[in-house]
Amino acid sequence: QVQLVESGGGLVQAGGSLRLSCAASRGTFSSYAMGWFRQAPGKEREFVSGISWSGGSTNYADSVKGRFTISRDNAKNTVYLQMNSLKPEDTTVYYCAARLGPGSAYAHEYPYWGQGTQVTVSS
Fold first, then answer.
1. Which of 9, 31, 70, 116 has the most neighbouring CB atoms within 10 Å?
2. Which helix (H) or strand (E) holds 10?
3. Measured between alpha carbons, how far is residue 16 from residues 36, 50, 58, 66 in Å?
4. CA distances from residue 117 to 26, 27, 53, 75 in whole angstroms, order as listed
5. pLDDT digits over 21-76, tens only?
6. What residues have CB less than 8 Å from 63, skipping those under 6 apart?
7. Alpha carbon of 52 to those of 11, 42, 46, 48, 122: distances in Å?
């Protein structure tokens, strides 16, 4: 089964940018649709963005549309989340997830998850 490791989180000022990466190992990365989710303490995991196995289809939560961009490099077994114009409310832990078949905005439909990476946006 695929294993996922996120990186790229950190502390940034409001209006700044970060790029998250999620490296996959084991399994055939190009077979998986990928998603990025985030979860604040005491809250449910929230869909941020998703991308199809080919990269030809992407979707975004309304809260990040126009600011975040998801992409993938199947040759490098990596999915990215470019986050621009960051806001303090973007502060939380970000997770990447993988599932076979079409993409989904529902966390429970992803069986494979990374350990998460913290993003903190200061005002």
1. 70
2. strand 10-13
3. 19, 22, 23, 14
4. 20, 22, 22, 23
5. 999 998 899 999 999 999 998 999 999 999 999 999 999 999 999 999 999 999 99
6. 89
7. 29, 29, 18, 14, 32
